[in-house]
UniProtKB/TrEMBL annotation:
Residues 33-52 bind DNA. PANTHER family: HTH-TYPE TRANSCRIPTIONAL REGULATOR PKSA (PTHR30055:SF226), HTH-TYPE TRANSCRIPTIONAL REGULATOR RUTR (PTHR30055). The keyword DNA-binding applies. Pfam families: TetR_C_14, TetR_N. Transmembrane segments: none annotated. Residues 10-70 form the HTH tetR-type domain. It comes from the Bacteria. This is AcrR family transcriptional regulator. Gene3D superfamilies: Homeodomain-like (1.10.10.60), Tetracycline Repressor, domain 2 (1.10.357.10). GO terms for molecular function: DNA-binding transcription factor activity; transcription cis-regulatory region binding. The keyword Ribonucleoprotein does not apply.
Length: 234
């Protein structure tokens, strides 16, 4: 008979993470010490500090790695990427973050409970969100041309992407949605339509914007006449 595949034994880091979250739920974050976590995991204090720098790092262990994945995805569509390529890169980079939390499952929900009740952890989570927003903002600013006139637009775009992602993530963490992936697509569609990443938007280097005002009640022929000069310029 073929051998039955063995379930890999959890690593010390995995045992420490599980032990820490169990103890935080049982005793509270502040009342739990590093020694408590190490003892529950069946390892020594030294092993804990080989895996994590502090109790807080047990809760936010993947932050740097996730930022690296986002940076790599955006870099794959570096300027002068066309609009469709840039839009896809931003949406897919944001989706990486959502799927990371979805894969964590109950661990992500336990982290959410902690960050909503422990001010220091909430502050660190906000700092992490700001790091994501800066990363998106830097990419969008470069894509828009890196000029001072595009800095505000890049920040607004980045804030919209992060806000839409967080809205969907919170709904999932609170058990308010059964299909976060679909909700994410809808949310990103709202961002694209709202803040200028839709197909009619322009990157840096395009011609100047034009605003056409057509009075209410104008006929189709009048509207076509108003738009004709723009069509000739495009």
């Amino acid at each position: 008979m073929p051998d039955t595949p063995r379930t890999p034994r959890p690593t010390a880091r995995e045992r420490l993470t599980l032990a820490a979250f169990e103890l935080f739920e049982e005793r509270g974050f502040e009342a739990t010490t590093v020694d408590d976590v190490a003892e529950r995991a069946g390892v020594g204090r030294t092993t804990f500090f080989r895996s994590f720098r502090s109790k807080e790092d047990v809760i936010f262990p993947e932050h740097d790695g996730l930022l690296g994945q986002i940076r790599d995805r955006l870099a794959a569509a570096s300027p002068p990427a066309d609009l469709a390529t840039a839009r896809t890169a931003v949406v897919e980079a944001a989706r990486l973050v959502l799927r990371h939390y979805l894969t964590e499952g109950d661990l992500a929900r336990a982290r959410y409970r902690l960050t909503t009740t422990v001010p220091a952890l909430r502050a660190r989570e906000i700092a992490g969100q700001q790091a994501y927003q800066r990363l998106f903002g830097a990419y969008l600013h470069a894509w828009l041309g890196s000029g001072p006139e595009t800095a505000l637009r890049a920040e607004l775009l980045a804030a919209a992407v992060v806000t839409a992602h967080n809205h969907v993530l919170r709904a999932w963490l609170r058990d308010q949605t059964t299909d976060p992936e679909a909700d994410f697509e809808t949310a990103m569609g709202e961002v694209v339509a709202l803040v200028g990443l839709a197909s009619g938007a322009r990157a840096a280097g395009d011609g100047p914007a034009a605003i056409v005002v057509v009075r209410t009640g104008a006929s189709d022929a009048e509207i076509a006449a108003a738009l004709a000069p723009l069509a000739e310029q495009s």
